[in-house]
Amino acid sequence: EPEQTFVFEHVTEAPVPALLRGFSAPVRLACDYTSAQLRALMSREDDGFLRWDAAQQYALRVINEVQAQQASGEEGVLDPEYLAACGDLLRDTELDPALVAEMLSLPGENYLADLAAANGGADVDAIHAARKAVRNGIATTHRDALQACYLRLENSAPYAPDAAQIGARRLRNVCLDYLALAGADGLLLAEAQFAGASNMSDRLAALQALAFHGEATRRDPALQKFHADWQHETLVMNKWLQLQATIPAPGTLEQVQQLLQHPVFDVRNPNKVRALIGAFANANPLVFHRADGAGYRLLADMVMQIDSLNPQLAARLLVPLTRWRNYRGRGEQMRGVLQGMIDTPTVSRDVYEMLERALAD
């Protein structure tokens, strides 16, 4: 049937539909929930996936509202009901910490760009500014609740890779990231966790908090210390490269260029290339899409260099540039870089086919 009507009798308030509860098939369902309904699902729904999905939908709505306000020259004002819902999550000691961590994690900038591509193209800078404003709002509004949750989840028991410890660590580190974003007290917590962490998950989370939110006097010594401690562990050094490539700060592109000359990096090693170049192009949209086009040129240069060594890897690295149609104000720059690459006579068949498809009308 194209349409059905359901009537609820003897119900004192309008019900909130929890659609597809317990349904595991890959289904896309559009429902015009109000903000109040999304908050109700965030707060009371029993199905974990629906509860997380409601949090993501609500966060997406708030980010879009803030982006529209900022585009009009206004200061972004966050929906107070959304902030209240986030506070409720932090104070809920019965809910699975792993679920709370995911509910407090906002949709990523690449996902937001994909959605915006269908509505006139993605504005990378505007998306970053709006998402950052929402994160700042959560961090400053709930600083006390974040710290209380962080301290509550401290665990002196021996490390165990079980669900309970993994969930608690995940939420604790989400709280740490927000606290570091909120200011100096959070950065002090990150420094203490970095120094005293008994496992790699906590140490890397603390390092990321310092690298993403701290000034150079905090960030650089921590990165140097981590390298000194783990330089002989190849997989750990891949994480070190990846973390630095994804710092959303103006100097990251130059840092990536320096890391290309670092002894840890080897252009002949695919995992090293993915950790540094792949992470930069795929997981750092703010810097990769820098207005001067330097990020595009760096990727193009590395693709051409790697093409002679590993054409399949080079072709896969090229993917972020092939999405040039999705971006407003950047698309023609990206297309120009692709055009320059396809005109290179030494380009491999793998890369040429990617370029040809990307540039086809």
TrEMBL record:
Keywords recorded for this protein, A-Z: Aminopeptidase, Hydrolase, Protease
InterPro entries: PepN_Ig-like_sf, Peptidase_M1_pepN, Peptidase_M1_pepN_C, Peptidase_M1_pepN_C_sf, Peptidase_M1_pepN_Ig-like
Superkingdom to which the source organism belongs: Bacteria
Peptidase M1 alanyl aminopeptidase C-terminal domain residues: 36-360
Any single Pfam family the record assigns to this protein: DUF3458
Ranges for domain Peptidase M1 alanyl aminopeptidase Ig-like fold: 3-30
GO molecular function, one term: zinc ion binding
Protein name: Aminopeptidase N
Organism: Haliea salexigens
